[in-house]
Amino acid sequence: MSINAKSTITTTIARILGNILVFILPNKAHQLSENRITLIHKNKNNLNIVERLMRYALVQKLEKIENHDTIAEKNREFWTNNNAIELFKETEETFKTDFLPHCSFIFEILKKELSNQSEQFDTLVEIGTGNGDVLNYLSAEFPQINKFVGIDLSPDQIELNNIKFKSNKKLEFVALDAYDWVKENGQSNTIFVSSRGVLEYFLEQRLQDFLNEINQLGKTFFVAIEPNDVNHDFDTQPETQLYGNEPSFSHNYPHLFKNAGFTLWHFSQKPWFNGGNTQTFVGAKN
């Protein structure tokens, strides 16, 4: 029997068992599926075998959403409420298990790029800072930068971050839409960062407008670490595509950055989450 055949049989059995468990344990099923995005991103390590099977069956049954405005609205609602805080808690260990071993390399390249600049970059802004761990890490990696701003849609998470990192005087956390923050506070000689799933929640036109706005600030750098659909070919498919069960947007990041007037100093991709998605790394400057 081939590997593909074994995989098909395994997933079929998992789906059948999961559906049976959902039927006989309706209260548990409701608890697991109370929020769409939480269900999708729920940390498997925090679930027992029964819950894993139920989660698998529930994810397979999620209603397909095609309308981009509806998707953006639902995702925004999620990231502004308490469900986002719970997800940040569940995925907290990914800073050590994913970011440090698989993503931090691009900041070593950024250091080399900055060393070739005659101007001083005095501010670093993380869009979608979440629990603040990445921003705190970057403040130690770039000691020459005086100000680190973490922006997030969740006021409650920002409050938690201000308590957690109160001893690091270089950090500032703000509960605001990133586009609004840039319009009100953006300035030249700033480095912008998004880490592992932030820009994927922007509508394509809003993301293009956002990058255009940043480009107009003056001298800026941007590091984007964003997931993409593994089947999204940037060379032949410049337009944004839907991907995943959330769903979210697989943007053609090189295309959008270049449209906004940036040049790329880095581009690479790696398999992510067991090959189901691709992690895209973009370094851009103007």
Oligomer: single chain
The strands making up the biggest β-sheet line up spatially as 3-2-1-4-5-9-8
Q: Look at the structure and give the CATH class of the largest domain.
A: Alpha Beta
Note the main sheet.
Answer: 7 strands, mixed
Percent helix, as a range, is 40-55%
The helix/strand order is HHHHHHHHEHEHEHEHEEEHEE
CATH topology of the largest domain: Rossmann fold
Q: How large is the share of residues in beta strands?
A: 15-25%
N→C terminal distance: 54 Å
Q: In terms of per-residue confidence, which ranges show pLDDT below 50 for 5 or more consecutive residues?
A: none
Round the Cα radius of gyration to an integer and report it.
20 Å
Q: Would you tell me the structural class of the helices and strands?
A: alpha/beta
* Whole-number total of structural domains: 2
CATH architecture field of the largest domain: 3-Layer(aba) Sandwich
Total count of helical runs of at least 4 residues: 13
Mean pLDDT score: 90
Structure explained in plain terms:
- Helices cover 47% and strands 20% of the residues.
- The protein has 286 residues and is of the alpha/beta class.
- Helix 1 packs across helix 4.
- It is globular.
- The termini are far apart.
Summarize this, please?
By secondary structure, this protein is of the alpha/beta class.
Keywords:
alpha/beta; Rossmann fold; seven-stranded mixed beta sheet; two-stranded antiparallel ribbon; globular
List the helices and strands and how they pair.
Blueprint: H1 3-24, H2 26-32, H3 36-41, H4 49-60, H5 68-79, H6 82-90, H7 94-103, H8 105-115, E1 123-127, H9 133-141, E2 147-152, H10 155-164, E3 171-175, H11 178-185, E4 190-195, H12 204-215, E5 220-229, E6 241-243, E7 248-250, H13 253-259, E8 263-272, E9 277-285
Parallel strand pairs: 1-2, 1-4, 2-3, 4-5
Antiparallel strand pairs: 5-9, 6-7, 8-9
Helix pairs in contact: 1-4
